[in-house]
Amino acid sequence: MKKLLNIILVLLIVSAAFSGVLLAGCTGSGSEYGPEIGKLAPDFTLNGLDGQEVSLRGFRGRPVLLNFWATWCGPCQMEMPLLQAVHEKWAGTGLVLLAVNLQEDPVSVRDFVESAGYTFPVLLSPGNDVSLAYNIRGIPATFFVDADGVIRDMKIGAFFNLSEIESKLVKIMP
């Protein structure tokens, strides 16, 4: 019986691996855009906390650190002071930091940002169009976009120190 279970397990693993190889060619759209390293970052236009419309395309020519987050997310809360430090240290070098809040009430987001004293731009994504375009499955999620609009690195999960963020910034900074 144990031998039969081992054979079935091996067959399942092999068939899963093989189907992944076969399906990989069918799932790609061939698009130059997408939430993958080496592809153009999907464009979006969202309102900031200040009410101004912001488009990712508007920052072409400048590197962008794009962070997806929510106020209820503990790891996001832990990461926010690091993002503020990056904003303060790197803004003079041309780096743009955009924090995209996902589907929360603007008043709650504003209160959270103001109470902590964060000064980087916060954008509001009330629907799920942007999170779907970036295939956000967990937050925080951070994308490092170069001056040409190409994603050069990404991280799902929180950063724990400034040097970890800076090690990824070097991939997009001139």
Describe this structure in words.
By secondary structure, the chain is an alpha/beta fold. It has five helices and seven strands. A seven-stranded mixed β-sheet has the order 2-1-5-4-3-6-7. The N and C termini lie far apart (62 Å). About 15% of the residues have low confidence.
Furnish the topology, listing elements before pairings.
Elements: H1 2-27, E1 45-48, E2 53-55, E3 64-69, H2 74-90, E4 96-102, H3 106-116, E5 122-125, H4 129-133, E6 141-145, E7 151-156, H5 162-169
Parallel strand pairs: 3-4, 4-5
Antiparallel strand pairs: 1-2, 1-5, 3-6, 6-7
Quick summary:
The protein is 39% helix and 20% strand. It contains five helices and seven strands.
Overall mean pLDDT score?
87
Give the strand order, joined by hyphens, for the main sheet.
2-1-5-4-3-6-7
Please state the CA-atom Rg, rounded to the nearest Å: 19 Å
Helix proportion: 25-40%
- Taken as a percent bin, the fraction of beta residues is 15-25%
Distance between the termini: 62 Å
Number of helices: 5
List keywords for this structure.
single chain; 7 strands; 20% strand; globular
